[in-house]
């Protein structure tokens, strides 16, 4: 299971963390690669260097013979197998497509690009009958994603958007049931599903006029979130816990900053929604959000990202189908958005919403693939970035000390060392941020 960075390692490798840990602050030019008011092009112009700095690590492959002596001149080949950065999407159409061919193609294209999947835990649909949660479906999704090396997140455990039909009216009973649900889900899937959006959208409690919302407002945002975080932590101390919201201003920051015990934050990562149905956000805004929430000293997950490739045809959830012109615009916006976030050291995950136009939220053409699962230009652009431009491959040779130096993207890699006489060794290595990354191979 690949979790967000160790908190201290994360702090050491960000400008915000340097201040929190008492280290010397970064140079102004490095901390702010572009001045206030800078446009997208100015930000993007600095991304290549920042990706090189923040997303790659150095290391050494040391090749030894069976006698333990260094082996100079050995051929070393490396290819990346997985990113540490979480490139994700919700996986809500898994097992729910009407045609087996569509289902197979949905899964194939998903696994080819993504290493992170969000599974739905919306209370009304997950437990439509009291006492009968849909655990079987989650088990099936977890089995499939495990077999394809995909980490999963549960979303959301607590949200006042809609009540289960059977939810009682009494606040005390709602509290008991909500707490029990959090404890049960986190504990049941421990070791298989260890990343959770624990509380969703705490800045707007009550706006949906639900009983959950009434109880949450009566309790207060900070106590409401705190209680559920503590229960989730007790159910799985090793879990990665998030609080998630679409509001990125002071209200959300104040709630997060108040969620502390003995000065330590009660959650592990900040969840930022970025639905852009109305058009791409200026990258200056994206960068400022990362800077602002990075001051908390935790990784940032962009949890719900949408850019559409079809026109809005009226107010509300009224959208037209994908068009070639808008697909081209979507692809360009996707490439720029992902590049900017991959360049920011505070960002650790980016989850798309939804993978296919089939069943996409609001009925919008929000997918990276079309309803028939054919790839849009946005899918192809992401593949070119994630699996080509940001993907490490290396062919080298060991020096007189039997060592081959590496500089590769953080993540897992398959390394092979060989000699002309047929002796060889292979190993899967994990190059981590802030670690010495020294790996030994012994030729047989």
Please tell me about this protein's structure:
This protein has 444 residues and is α/β, with parallel strands linked by helices. The chain has a domain of 305 residues: Alpha-Beta Barrel (TIM Barrel). Helix content is 36%, strand content 25%. Helix 4 crosses helix 13 and helix 13 runs parallel beside helix 14. The two termini are 30 Å apart.
Average pLDDT number: 92
- Percent in strands: 15-25%
The CATH homologous superfamily name of one domain equals: Glycosidases
Broad CATH class of one domain: Alpha Beta
SSE arrangement:
Layout: H1 7-12, H2 15-20, H3 28-31, H4 40-54, E1 56-64, E2 75-83, E3 86-90, H5 100-113, E4 116-120, H6 123-126, H7 135-147, E5 151-155, H8 171-188, E6 195-200, H9 211-219, H10 221-235, E7 240-245, H11 250-258, E8 260-261, E9 264-265, E10 269-276, H12 283-294, E11 300-307, E12 312-314, E13 318-319, H13 324-343, E14 347-352, H14 377-389, E15 393-397, E16 403-409, E17 411-418, E18 424-431, E19 438-442
Parallel strand pairs: 1-19, 3-4, 3-14, 4-5, 5-6, 6-7, 7-10, 10-11, 11-14
Antiparallel strand pairs: 1-16, 2-15, 2-17, 8-9, 12-13, 17-18
Helix pairs in contact: 4-13, 8-10, 12-13, 13-14
Quick structural summary:
The protein is α/β, with parallel strands linked by helices and 444 residues long. It is 36% helix and 25% strand. It has a domain at 85-389: TIM Barrel (Alpha-Beta Barrel), CATH 3.20.20.80.
